[in-house]
Amino acid sequence: MSSEKSVPGEGAREAELQVEMKKMQVSQITHFPENSREVPSSERELDATPIIPNPQDQDSPEGPADTSPITSTAPGPNIPEIAEDTTPATTTQDHNTPEIAEDTAPATTAQDHNTPEIAEDTAPAICTAQDHNTPEIAEDTTPATCTAEGHSIPEFAEDESSVTSSAPADNIPEITGGTTPVMGPSDTSSVISTAQGQGIPEFDEDEPPDTSSVITTPPESTVPKDPANSPSTTPASVSPPGEIKIDSVEIDSVSLSWSSPDNMDGIPHSFYITYSSSDKSHQDSITAPSNSTVISELRPGKEYSFTVTTVLKNGTQSTPVSTAVCTKPSPPGEIKIDSVGSNSVSLSWGSPDNMDGIPHSFHITYSSSDKSDQDSITAVFNSTVISELRPGREYSFTVTTVLENGTQSTPVSTSVCTKTHLEDLLCRLGLEKCFPGKITLSTVLEIGTESITDEPIQSLKKLPWCFLKSLMMVNVTARSTKCSAAETDTDSALQDLDSVLELIASNDDQDTNIINPLDLLAAVFLCSDSFLQQEMMSKMSMCQFAVPLLLPDCSTSQCTLMLWAMRDIVKKFRPRSLIDSKGFVEDSIVSTAMPMISFVRLGDCSLSKSQILNQVLSNPQQYHDFFIHRDMECGDVPRRIANGLVEIGWYLPCGKKNLDIFPEPVAVANLRGDLLSFQKQFSILCQTSSAVFIFFDSIADSECKLLSSAGDIKAQLYLVGNFPNKTEKNIHSLRDLGSKLQLSGSQILFKKQQTNDAEFVAKLRSTMNDIMENCQHKMTIEGMSAEAHELGIPVDEDCTKCQNAKTSAAEITSRINDVVRYKEDQLPLQGKLWKELAKIEKEECRLRKAGSKPIEEYKSNLRSEKQKLRKQQIRYNISEAMQCFIAALSNESKEERSYFLKWMRMNLDVTARKKLSGLRDEYKDKCCKFSENKEIIAVLDRQISDSSLGMEHFMREMGQLYEAACSLPDNAESRQQFKHLPSLGADLLLDGFPLELVDGDASNIPVRWVTDVLTELHRKVQHKSRLLVVTVLGVQSTGKSTLLNTMFGVQFAVSSGRCTRGAFMLLIRVKEDLKEELNCDFILVIDTEGLKSPELAQLEDSYEHDNELATLVVGLSDVTIINIAMENSTEMKDILQIVVHAFLRMKEVGKKPNCQFVHQNVGDVSAHDNNARDRNKLLEQLNEMTQAAARMEKKGHNTKFTDIMEYDAKKNNWYIPGLWHGNPPMAPVNTGYSETVYQFKKSLIEVLKNANKQKPPAPVTEFLEWVGSLWKAVKYEHFIFSFRNSLVAEAYSNLCVEYNKWEWDFRKHMYNWLANAETRISNLDTSNYEDFSSGLKAEASAELAKEENQMLQNLTDYYQKNNGHVNLVEKHREDFVSCIKSLRREIERSVNNKCENAIAIHKGMKKMYDNREEYTAVIEGKVQSLLETCRERNSPLTDEELQKDFEEMWNQTVSELKFQALETRAVASDILNQLRANLERHGSQVQKELSEVEDLTDCGKEHFIAHAQHFESSDYQKMNEKPAKTKTFFSNRFMNLFKRQPEEPLAKELENRATEKAHEIIQKCRQFVLSKARSKSDYHDICTMELLQMIDKELKNEETVKTNAQFELYLKLHICGYAARKFQKMHEDFNEKNDPKKALEKFRPQYCSNFIDLYHEKDQCRKTAEEFTERCLKPAVRVYINKALGIDIVDEMLTGAHSVKYSSRSFFQFSILKQILEEDNFGIYVEYIKNYETFVKGWISDQIVQYFTRDAKIGDLETKLLETITKKIQAAIENAQKETAESQSTTKFIQMISRNLNKDLVISREELGAVLFLKNSNHKEFAKYLQGLVNELTGTLRAEFSQQCDAEKKLVNLPFKPQDELFKRVFGCGKQCPFCKVPCEAGGKDHKQHHASVHRPQGLGMYRWSDSKKLHVNICSTDVHSDQKFQSPETEWKAHPYKDYRRFYPDWNIAPDASIEASDYWKYVLTAFNKQFAEEYKAQPADIPAEWKTITKRNAMKCLNKLFNVKTSAAQPAGKYKANITGF
C-alpha cells in the first residue's frame, strides 16, 4: 500500500481529495447482503473504483437515493491471478491477501481469502460473489464487480469494462475479446446483471448491449494513478453549490439538498460531500451526482457537520458549503406496565438504540381518559412510578427520549386502567383470583405445610392465610397484620444506592408492606364464601372480636347485612332476671332481642371511639380489644376499603353483680369512617338502634344541616364532643344542632381535656345503662333485614340457593313439636327396631341367653328374629321428613345442599334448645323435692336424653333405610330406590360434614351403610384415599370436641346439651405439599362419646360399652389422644384402665398406635417441669394397669405400658391451659390455649409422619376392613382370641408364603449338598474315615449356618419393608425365628444321619471291594501268563482254542483261590440290644419284661390291641364307669373318630383310641422298614436307630391318649419284631448277591473276551470306550438324574402353574376343600375326615402325576439334567486329555476321567475294574471314540426321556420322594383341633399357637348326643364363645366352659365366629350327606337347622373363599373361582 500523499499547499492535498472521491464512489456501488458487514472508514484503504450505482435505482434520473459501500461477502473463493497494470481489488471477506505487483494500487481486504497475485496497472476487481472460481483477468481491464453467489466467473479479455453481477449460483459465460459495452464515445462502462439463477448470455462482437443498465462513470483518465498526477483544485475555476437545506432529519439519516452551482449548466460535475460528528468519532464522505442526497448510517442523537463541494470530471473542486444538524434521538423501547395500583402505576421501557454514551433523559406525559387529570414528569432512568393517580381511571402514558439540547424522539405510548382500592388491595394480598367469595371452608381446613410452620410473614400475600389459620384456631392474635419484612425491607433497601434513588423517584412515602387489620378483615370476608364467612364469624365471636354487621364493597359502593354469616353464633348468658334461679339463656345471637347502641363519627375526630368502646365493654380487671383501634398494631395505617364497615359486638352478663358492667345484654355497633360518606349505613343504624352516639371534634354548618334534616330517626341521638380547640363557632353550631334535634342536656357528652379516660368511660357506661333501662325498642339482627330491604341494603342470605334451602329445611323442622313423638313418627327405623337389631347382633356373638338350647338352633332363631325386624323396617313407608331430607341432599347444587345442611343443623339446635330449656327448668323444680318426685325425675332424665335431635338422627335414618333395603333381593324396587344413598353420604364426607361411625344410642355400627359410603368415597376420589386416623378419648365434657375443633378448625357439635354420643368421623384433606411427607390423602378425625358418661352410668353394661368404644377407636387410630381434665382426675384411673385394655388388645393384633396424653386446664408455665413427678406417677400407674390388664386378658408376658404402645413420658404429655381467658360469656379464648393446641398439632403431624414411615397409610378400603373386623371382635367377650381380620390374615398368609419359599431354598440347597456329599463318600478312596467324617460335618455345619443366617436375614428384611401390613404380624416374628432355628436343627440331624449312614455303608463295601480286587489281580496275572504261552506256540490259535485254554486256566485259578464268605449277622439280636438301650430310661418292670424276650422275630405277628395294663391305673379306673345319660353331650376328644355306643364305659373307648393310634404308628414304621428293604443295601444299625427315633417322635406327639411305659414296650416290640424279620432278610439277600466267588464269576465272559482280543492284537480303543460308556457312565448318569429329579419335581410344583396350592398351608387347605367340593363325593369326604394324613399324601401324589401327565413332562426335567451332566462329562474328558501324558496308558486316562467326575457321578469300582482288565490301548484314539459315544448316549437317553412315561411309577422309584417333601411342606406341625380335628394351618413347624381357618360341625367328627345318638351339629368356633361346656381327660371329665378352653389347650387359638355363614362349607356337607354320615358312624342323622338347608353348593364355595380370603373373579361363570393369593 502506497504511503505517499499529495496535499495542496503542502504537496499532498490534491491526492488525498482524489482518494476521498474514490471512497465515495465505492460506497455507492453495492448493497450489503444481510450477513455482510460494512468496512468502517478506519479500515478502508485507497480505492480507485469507478462509481457504479445500485441496479435497482437505474430508472431514477438522479441515481440512487441511498447507496452502500462496496463489500465482498464471498467466503473463501479462489480468486484468480490478475495481470499487471490493474488496479487493486477490494474485498470484505477473510481472504489471504496476494502478492501485489509493482506500481499497482494496493488491494484492500477485510477477510482471509486466498487472493491471487495482482499484476501491475490493473483496475481493481470488486467482488461480492460467494464461493466462486474467479477467472484470470487480463491486463488493462476495468474491474469486474460481482455480487453473484457461487458462480464460475469467466476470464475477461483485454480492454474489457467491468461486469457487476448479483445473480447467484449461475455459470457466468465468457465474454469475448474486443466487445466492450458502449456507454459513450469516450467512456467505459460496467454491466450490471440482476438475473437470478440464469446463465448470462455471451455477447457477440459488433452487437451493442442493452444500454438500459449502463451508467456513465468518470473515464479512467480521471482516476489518478499516482498522487503526483493530481489535478488542480483552485476554487476560482468551479462554482460552489448553493446553500445547504436540511430536508429531513431522522434517527440515523439526514436528507440534504442544495441549489445548483452558478453558471455550471452543461459542464459535467458532481458533488463531494463530507460529514463528521461533533466529537470526530464518526466521519466519512460520499459523492452525489445530483443536488440532493441522503446521508445514512449516522448515530442517533449526535450533532453532525456537512460540507458540500462541486467537483469537475478532472477532479477540480469548488469552495465548500457547510451546515450542521443533530440527528434525532432513538425512541424508548416498548413500554412495560410493571405494576398497577389504585393510585400509582409503575412503568419501565427499553433503552433507546445506539444511545450509549449520549446524555439523554425521558419525558413522560400522562392523562386520564376524560382529560381531568394530566401531567408530565422527567425520568433519568428507564423506569418510573407515576403516583397520585385516581383509582379506577384509564390513563394513557407517553414516553419520549430527550437530548440535552431539548431534541425529542418519536413518542412511545401505552394505556392502562388504575385499580380500584379494592382491586389494589386484593392484588397486594394475593386474593385477586379469590374475589368474590371463592375461598371455601374446605380449602382453609386442608392441612398443608403452612398449617404447621411458623415462618415469619414476609409478604402481604401470606397475610390472609395466616389470619385464617390463626382464626380457625381461635387465636386472639389473629388480627396482627404486621409483616416481618415491613421493618427489614426498607433498611436493606437503604444500603443499595439504586434502590434509594428509585425510592426517592417514586415519591411513595407509604410502606407498601403493611395494611390496616380492618382492610384485611374486609378483604378476607369479601373473598370468602358464605360458609367460610359463617365459620369466621363463629371463631371471631369466640375470640370476642367485633364481627362485621354491614360489610362494604367499595367496588360497588354497596354494603351487605351479614345475617347468614352470624346465624351460627350461639351465646349463653344469665340476665338479671335469672340470677336467683341460676338459669341461663342460650340462643342464636341473631334471634336474641336486645337493645343496640351504635357509635358513629362525624368528620375527623381526635377521640378514638373504638378504643373508648373497648374500655366501656371491658371488665376493669381485664381489658380486651373488641374493636380494632388506631393504637393497635397497624391500626393507624390508612384504611383502603374498610370505611363503611359496621361492626357489632355484644355485652352479655354472667349474672354476677360485682362483675357485670351491664345487667342485661346489649349490642354495640360501630361505623367505620365518616357518617356523611356512608349515609345508608347511618340510616339503618338510626332505624334499628336504641341510641346512636355521634363522636365529633367540630361541626360545620353543612354537617349540621344534614343531621337536622335526617327525617324520622327512631334512635335517640347522643353527641359526644371532644373540642381540642374551643371556638365560639363550634359552640354555636352545637347549640344550633341540639335545638334542631331537640336534644336534652343529658344527650350531649363532652370529653374535656381535664377528664381522663376512666371518668369518661364511667359516664358513657352510665348513659348506656340509662338507655337500656328505658329502652322500649329491642331489636334482633333477623329483624334488621326488613329495614335493610327498605333502605336497599342487600342481605347475604337473600340468594336463591340459601332461600330454597331454608324452605326445604323448614318443611322438615317446622313440624317438630314433641321431639320424642317426632322421632317415632318420622324416624322410626332407628328407634326400638334398630336397638333390637343391635342387641341381637351382639347376642349372636355372645350367646349369653342360649341356655340349654342347641347353639346352632339358637343362632338360627336369632337370624330369623333379625330378618323379622328388617321386614318390619321395610314395612314402614319412607316418612315425609325423610323424603324431603333425601330430596334436598340429592340436589345437584353442592352449594344449595350445604345451605340445607346448615339450616337443618341450626333449626334442630334451636328446637333442641327450646325443648331442653323447658325440661331442665322442670327438672330443677322437681329436684327441690327429690324424694317425692323420684320417679318423675327419672322420667325427666330419660326425656332430656331422648330430646336430643340433630343431623346425626336423620343421617342414621338414611343409613337404616339403606341397610333395610340391602336385606331385600338385588332386583327389588325398594332396593333400587335407595342404592344412591351411599353416594350422598360420600359427598357429605368430602364436603367436611361429620358422619356417624358408631351409633351412640344403639351402641352399634351400621356396617353395611358405613362400608358402602366409604367405598363410594374411595371411588369418587379415584382411589386416592390413603388415610391417617386421629382419635380422641376422654371423660365426657372435658373439651374433646373443642380440642379437635381448635386443632383442625372443624365443626364437631359442642353446643349445650349436645354431648357427643357414639363416634363421629370427619375427613380433612391433605394439601399436595404435605402429601409426600405424610404419604396420605386425608386425615380422618374421630370424635368419640365421653367415657364414664352420667347418662350411661346407671346401665349394667356401661363399663362394657366404654370398653367397646375405646377398643374400636384405638384399633382404628394411628394416633390416639387421651384427653384428661385435671378437675376430673378422680375419673382418670377408670379411663386409663379402659384405654390400657384397648392398647393391649391392639398389641395382640399387631397394631401399636401412638398415644398422646392431653392434660387440660393446666395453665402454669412451669407445668411441664412441675408435673415431672406426676408424669412418673402416671407411668407407674399405667404399668400397674398394664400388668393387671395382661393378667385379665391372659397375657402375662406384657409388663410395661411401653410394651404395648409408643409412649414417651416427656414427649407424649401435653399441658394445655383453660379454654377461656376470664369469666364467660365475655371471656375470649385463652391465647395460651390456642398456642399450646397449635404446638400440639405440629407435634401430632410429626408423629403422623413417623407413623407413615413405620406403616404406610391405608386406603379407605383397608380402613373398612379394620372397622368391620374390629367391631366384630369387640362384640365378643374375649377380644384377643376373637379377633379375626382379613388384613391380618392376609399379612400372615403373605409371610407364610415367603417363609415357605425361604424354607424350600434352604432345603433344596442342603439336599443338593447332601447329594454331592453322598457322591463324594461313594467315591472315597481312603481309610481315614474319622477325619473325612469330621471334615464333612464341619462343612455341613458351615452350609447350614450360612443358609440359616440367610433365612433370618430374609425375615428381617421382610419386616423392614413396611409393606404388606407386616406390622400386623409382628407378634409372629419370634415364632418364625424359632421355626428357622428348628428347621436348621431338623435338617442338621437328617444330613448328619445320612452322611454317617453313607460312610458306614462305604466302609463295609470298601472291605468287600478290596477283597475282590485281590482276586481280580490274581486272575489278571494268570491271564497274562496264558497269553504269553499261547503266543509262543508255532501255529496261530482259533478263538475256540483260546476260549478252551482260558476256561481251563480260570477253573484251576478259582479252585486255588481261598474265597472268604461275607459274615452273616444276627440282625434280630442286634435290634433287641438297641431296643434295650432305648428303653433304659424306664423302670425295672419294663427291663424285666424285655429280658424275657427270647426271639424278637416272634414279636409283631399278631394284631396289636391296647389293654388295661397299657394305661395308668388311676386314670383307667375313673373311666371304667358307664356315662350318665344326659342332654349335655360329652365333648371329649375321643369321640370324634370312634363309634362308641352310649352304654359303653369310657375306658373301653380309651383302649380303642390307643389301639387306633398304635396302628397309625405301626403303619408308618412298616413303610419305613419296607423303604429300607427295597434299597437292596446291607443292614446297618443306623436303620434301627432311625426306626426307634420315629416311634419315640410319634408317641411324643400323641397328646390325646395318655398311655404308660408298658404300652410303649409292647408297641416297640411289635414294630421291632416286624423290622427284625425284614432286616434279616435284607441282610441275607445282600450277602447272597455280593458273594465274592459269584461276583468274580460274573465277569468271566468279559475277561475271556479281552484275552482273545489281546491275543489277536486287536485295537481295543473302541471296545473299551463302548464298555466304559455302557457299563460305567450310563448307570452313573441314570443314578445322577434319578437322585436330582425328585428335587426338580418339587421345584417345578412350587414354581409352576399350580404353585399357589403349595404356597401356604392355608391355601393348600383351600385347594383340597375346593376340589372335593367340586367332586362332591361322600366317600372322599369320609376319607378326608377320617384319614387326613393318608388322604393328603395320596392327593399330593395324584396332583404330581396329574401335573406331569397333563401340563408338563418329567422327561423335560430329565433332559435338562442330562444336558447338565453331559457337559460335565465332556469337560472331564477334555481336561483328562490335557492332563494325561503321551506315554500314559488308557487305564490312567480313564482313571483321570473318573477323578474329574467324582463329585458328580458314582462310577462302580467293580465295573470300572472289569472295563480296565487287560486294557492297553492308545488313550488319544480312546478319547475320540469316547466323546462320540457320550454324544450317542445323550441322544439315546434323550429319546428315551422324550417318550411319555408312567409318572406314578417314576415317583415310586425315585430316591428323593417329591410327594413326601410336598407333604412335609403343607402338613406342617400335624396338630389337629382338640374338638373337631381340623388340621393346623400355622406357618413353620415350631410355632407357638395353632389355628385353622375353618372348623367343622362336630357331628362330622363322630360327635353325637349321648341319649338320642343323633350326630351333633355344633361348631367349635361357635362353642368357644357360648356358655356350653365340654369334658375331656384334660378336665378330668369335669364339665368346663368352652370359653375357657385355653386353660387346657393354651397352644390352640380358635377364633369365635358366630355369624350364620360361619363354616357354611361343612354345614353344606353335613346337610347334603346327613344320612350317609349317620350310617358310616352308626348314629342317627343330625337335626339340621332350617337355615342350613338353604345353603347351596355355591354358598359353600363363597364361604370357602371368604374364610381363606380368596378373591373371586366376577367375570367367571359360577363354580369357577380365580384364586388371588394376596390373601390366603
Going across the biggest sheet, name each strand in turn. 26-25-30-31-29-32-33-34
Report the principal-axis shape.
flat
Helix content: 40-55%
Q: Total strand count, please?
A: 43
Mean pLDDT: 77
Give the strand content: 5-15%
Rg result? 56 Å
Uncertain stretches: 1-13, 21-235, 486-494, 1096-1100, 1522-1544, 2008-2024
Global structural class: alpha/beta
Distance between the first and last residues' Cα: 101 Å
| Main pleated sheet | 8 strands, mixed
Q: Helix segment count?
A: 63
Any key phrases for this structure?
single chain, 2024 residues, alpha/beta, seven-stranded mixed beta sheet, disordered N terminus, disordered C terminus
Structure description:
The protein is α/β, with parallel strands linked by helices and 2024 residues long. It contains 63 helices and 43 strands. The two termini are 101 Å apart.
Summarize, please:
The chain has 2024 residues and is of the alpha/beta class. The chain is 45% helix and 11% strand.
Give the topology.
Layout: E1 6-7, H1 13-27, E2 85-86, E3 91-96, E4 109-114, E5 121-122, E6 126-127, E7 145-146, E8 163-165, E9 189-193, E10 214-216, E11 244-249, E12 254-258, E13 269-277, E14 283-288, E15 292-295, E16 303-312, E17 321-326, E18 335-340, E19 345-349, E20 360-368, E21 374-379, E22 383-386, E23 394-403, E24 412-417, H2 421-428, H3 441-445, H4 463-472, H5 485-494, H6 497-506, H7 517-527, H8 530-542, E25 547-553, E26 558-561, H9 563-566, E27 570-573, E28 585-588, E29 596-602, H10 609-617, E30 646-651, E31 666-674, H11 679-688, E32 691-696, H12 701-708, E33 716-721, H13 728-740, E34 748-750, H14 757-773, H15 781-790, H16 800-813, H17 819-826, H18 832-846, H19 855-875, H20 880-889, H21 894-927, H22 934-946, H23 951-966, H24 973-977, H25 981-990, E35 995-999, H26 1007-1020, E36 1027-1034, H27 1040-1048, E37 1062-1069, H28 1072-1078, E38 1082-1088, H29 1094-1097, H30 1102-1116, E39 1119-1125, H31 1129-1148, E40 1154-1160, H32 1167-1170, H33 1172-1192, H34 1201-1204, E41 1213-1216, H35 1231-1254, H36 1260-1274, H37 1279-1282, H38 1286-1322, H39 1329-1360, ...
Parallel strand pairs: 2-5, 3-4, 6-7, 8-9, 29-31, 29-32, 32-33, 33-34, 36-38, 36-39, 39-40, 40-41
Antiparallel strand pairs: 9-10, 11-12, 12-15, 13-14, 13-16, 16-17, 18-19, 19-22, 20-21, 20-23, 23-24, 25-26, 25-30, 27-28, 30-31, 35-37, 37-38, 42-43
Helix pairs in contact: 10-14, 12-13, 16-20, 16-21, 18-19, 19-23, 21-22, 25-26, 26-36, 27-35, 30-31, 30-36, 31-33, 38-39, 38-40, 38-50, 39-40, 40-41, 41-49, 42-46, 42-47, 44-45, 45-46, 45-47, 46-47, 50-54, 50-56, 50-57, 50-59, 51-63, 52-53, 53-59, 54-55, 54-57, 61-63
